[in-house]
Amino acid sequence: xxxxxxxxxxxxxxxxxxxxxxxxxxxxxxxxxxxxxxxxxxxxxxxxxxxxxxxxxxxxxxxxxxxxxxxxxxxxxxxxxxxxxxxxxxxxxxxxxxxxxxxxxxxxxxxxxxxxxxxxxxxxxxxxxxxxxxxxxxxxxxxxxxxxxxxxxxxxxxxxxxxxxxxxxxxxxxxxxxxxxxxxxxxxxxxxxxxxxxxxxxxxxxxxxxxxxxxxxxxxxxxxxxxxxxxxxxxxxxxxxxxxxxxxxxxxxxxxxxxxxxxxxxxxxxxxxxxxxxxxxxxxxxxxxxxxxxxxxxxxxxxxxxxxxxxxxxxxxxxxxxxxxxxxxxxxxxxxxxxxxxxxxxxxxxxxxxxxxxxxxxxxxxxxxxxxxxxxxxxxxxxxxxxxxxxxxxxxxxxxxxxxxxxxxxxxxxxxxxxxxxxxxxxxxxxxxxxxxxxxxxxxxxxxxxxxxxxxxxxxxxxxxxxxxxxxxxxxxxxxxxxxxxxxxxxxxxxxxxxxxxxxxxxxxxxxxxxxxxxxxxxxxxxxxxxxxxxxxxxxxxxxxxxxxxxxxxxxxxxxx
Length: 561
Ligand code: AMP
What we know:
The protein has 17 helices and 26 strands. By secondary structure, it is α/β, with parallel strands linked by helices. Among the domains are: about 190 residues, ANL, N-terminal domain (Rossmann fold, 3-Layer(aba) Sandwich); about 70 residues, Luciferase, Domain 3 (Luciferase, domain 3); about 110 residues, ANL, C-terminal domain (GMP Synthetase, Chain A, domain 3, 2-Layer Sandwich). It is globular, with a radius of gyration of 24 Å.
């Protein structure tokens, strides 16, 4: 192309997080925000009030002398104060750093130091954690307890500890949100990384606003002003999948569960607040379904739920859909992707299909949102076909996907293609079908290779958890002299249920799994270790079973074919 390009004549306006809260206040200021607090009570506020108090947060940061792009850490459950920090901190040009309180205190201290948090706000339930780490975090100049002034612990041992309410009460609720480059950092989240030190994804205002647009679309989470939305997925993990931002953009009611994530508390909140849409990881939904089943309960208004963060077992999808009339949107993503990559919704042509065929589509992780490019590659980096069969390493590109980690940790992660374009390697192994539906078969480090053939641990687990006596199941590979690796399945039996090894292995018969893929053994365990984000921690399980040896006779006679 020669000559200067003709530029469009549209107004230039950076995409800033503050614009979301300004919009929310102006257009749906009376929209409700409901939170179960750490204290146990239910608190009610509105978008207008969140906007007002987020301006007080911004003034408080100015008063505290927090520099532009200074980090403000949070160790907090889902709730209205956390939401105010989402807007007040990022809106004022500082970086919101959400910390995962389920990590080991040493890791929490390491992360605070690495991020160089300047201010740190925490829920009172995390006081013991803060007491354990504060002396090791010299960058933090101000610790704030997210509570009323009269609830501030008097002898916490944390110098200068302030209550959030006293902190913001001292400040005006008038504030002009600054305008700056939309690529400025807005928030950060460390990956749950199972090896090495955690690495942080550093989101920008632009990436966050674009992600919020895409997340709210009908073929993604489909959030509207008529919805009452319950993010059970924590605000400390990848911004609760963008729901706090998509909520402001759409004007939906937001319902925050606080610390109470057990089946009863979540069901009570869903019913009490007319929740139409909820988001969570499979392990939390398992507790909810068990509670529903035990009490013969129903949902009144809940009509759909997005399940992701780990594979949603087909038996769970079926239970929501067939027993409770709730549509499941299976979603896939990761911290490095803000997090949404794909969501599974049917296309028009599928609507006429029989229910069983529709279910086969809905079990996949879904189609890419506009903004996410993906491809699967083979061992030499060659592109693999989208035929639903070829499995390869999944690579992604897009404006809300990391190009590198905070402080360059881990070097440049991108894989260059022949045209020089950089793709982020997800570490997942997947197939993509001709309609663009992604199916994750494994994390690349969890894949089991038996006699040169891959076995998907997700497929093996999905069948096990469909057995009525199984509460949880994790499939891992163990070394084998002939086949290199063979799968075994570790199982937690439901309370009060009985299950024999042979019965579970029999259960694989007639299922969509080849004979050689059936586990060689069933190991009954009390529990399966969970990582900090509620996902099964296979490294922990491997460690737990490190002395385990295969029952050699069965293994030696298994044929790969
Ligand atoms: P995190 O960054 O901690 O959110 O973890 C992201 C990883 O979780 C992905 O790379 C996948 O391995 C896994 N994951 C997320 N969603 C799904 C899903 N729907 N099915 C299977 N694995 C998933």
